[in-house]
Amino acid sequence: MANSEVILLKGDAIRTLDITVGAGQARRVVFVALPGAGGVIDCRVSVRFAGEGGDCVLRGLYLAGGSSRVNFTVNMEHGVPRCSSRQLFKGIVAGQARTGFFGLIRVPEHCIGTEAYQENHNLLLGDDCRAQSLPQLEIYADDVKCSHGATFGRLGEEELFYMRSRGIPMDEARRLQLTAFAAEVLEGVPEDIAAQALASLESLV
Amino acid sequence: MAEIADILQELTNAEYSEGFTTDIEQEFFPKGLNGDIVRALSARKGEPEWMLEFRLDALRKWQGMKMPAWGHLQIPPIDFQDIIYFAAPKPPKKREEVDPELLKTFDKLGIPLEERDALSGVAVDAVFDSVSVKTTFQKTLQEKGIIFCPFSEAVKNHPELVRKYLAKVVPPSDNFFAALNSAVFSDGSFCYIPKGVRCPMELSSYFRINARGIGQFERTLIVADEGSYVSYMEGCTAPMRDENQLHAAIVEIIVEKDAEVKYSTVQNWYPGDSQGRGGIFNFVTKRGLCRGENSRLFWTQVETGSAITWKYPSTILRGDGSHSEFYSVALTNNYQQADTGTKMVHIGRNTTSRIVSKGISAGQSQNSYRGLVKVASGASGVRNHSQCDSLLIGDRCGAHTFPVIECANSGAILEHEATTSKISDEQLFYLRQRGISEEDAVALIVGGYASDVLQRLPMEFAIEARRLLSVNLEGSVG
């Protein structure tokens, strides 16, 4: 994604970020959270729109293994008519890690023409980890398009079988799948940060 | 646009046809709630000692609890000492005889209590204020070993069953309103389907609030033993009044191995007038336990009434391979507020669940979906799909979605999606262009939007539900 701001959170990190999107402005922010084996990351993002026609895209990737904890809180306040936002947050959870995603889209009265979408996808790699998702919509205006989606799942067995039947070892097949899962968020992120994310992903396999 | 305003006006004045009162001699307990009231209630019902103990224990718990404030609701303060906790029609002079006035009331509501007139294949337990006035088809059901009777009769005639199952799914300490209900519940239905029996008819409870100043607190307990099947329906109405009346019920369902229970509700309590005056406060705890393997529980609800609805029919999926579905249509208009949804707690392995929730808000109403899908760490092979759609009609209403998804097992596949939108102009235009009036067009679109849920209802209920949706929505075009 062009012109995106990238925020890398490593080890222990508490981050509060207030984003204001001006009239007709477009903002793109990518979050990459790599807590390592025992880090605690808490990231709180608030977005407000200062004028009509604003567009905000947030993407996030969190890779939590070991005993790490990751929490993302996103507050999308659509206080101005005719603004749009898209959110895509993906998490891979392994070991005894705990992750939480809390995302609120709020559209006050008269803020018509709002388009707000939010997605949160989680992959669980073990039975001792735990993931939570609270996607919330609070809508007080009728002429809007808003949706959110959340999924929880594991690596696809059929895809793993497909790759293994073609001579790709199990670990490699898992790595490929995890990389593909993360790729959507990492697209356009500077090489060095993407490389750190992939290295961290390696440790989860 | 003037036309739309007119139609909206008309809609908000739409008649609540069940809003009449029945003039009948009734006896009341004094207002307020304390140990003496609970003792008097228990004595009046001729209850055994253990039942009184259960009530007093619940009352003690309730006194130490606070009203929950987490709902997306604005609840005016409720004075629990200003409510009459027991009201009953004067007992008839001869036994086995029901006051003709009462028969007329239920007849007017479309719930005939004479068996020969009754809806074919539906057994009804009719509850009027605090007591059950008549249960039909009891004999026919008895032949199959099915117990279907008012709760107070069950306490007398089947104490061993009641003791075994009472409060096993919803303990008195569960929440504020569950504790209140456990202390003062006055009647309700008890239903037991023995092993391997398929209930030959639909069972139904009909709740009617009539007297002024009373609260209705009923309790339903359904037990489906191994391999049995029952379909259960619940309906309710109340007179139109300026005051708010309280309704706090508990429904407990226990589903054993291979058994199946369908529980359908059409909730049509008085919703208050177009200015938001009056209406029923509906605080209900409904929960089912899929205890045995491969047990199945289906919830279907159509919520059109009540000034405030606070209700989350939930399923605990404990048996391996058990399955539950929740289908809901919640319609709010004027100043109604609804905070409703479901909880699916997956504990057993290979348990599956499905949630389909359709919210429709019009006028100045607020309509929220609140749900929980939880997967315990030992529950492998869990599958859940949730879909929550909201439809907004008018620009002064609100539609909200508050799901919580918690997963502690890597074998689970969970999906949740929610959308919010309004009735599309293209659809309206298409229908209008073909000579369909605006009102009918909206009714058609809303009917189609809710049809996933409506088609799950038993036939008698589906017709009623469609009628309610169109009456409550008449002409509300956004």
For the structure shown, list the relevant keywords:
heterodimer, A: 205 residues, alpha/beta, 11 strands, B: alpha/beta, 10-stranded mixed β-sheet, 11 helices
Distance from first to last alpha carbon of chain A? 27 Å
Structural class of chain A: alpha/beta
Give me the oligomer status. Answer: heterodimer
- Give the helix proportion of chain A (percent range): 10-25%
Uncertain residue segments of chain B: none
Describe it.
- The complex is a heterodimer of chains A (205) and B (478).
- Chain A is α/β, with parallel strands linked by helices and 205 residues long.
- Helices cover 19% and strands 50% of the residues of chain A.
- Chain A has one domain.
- Chain A is built from three helices and eleven strands, in the order βββββββββββααα.
- Chain B is built from eleven helices and 22 strands.
- β10 (130-139) of chain A pairs antiparallel with β21 of chain B.
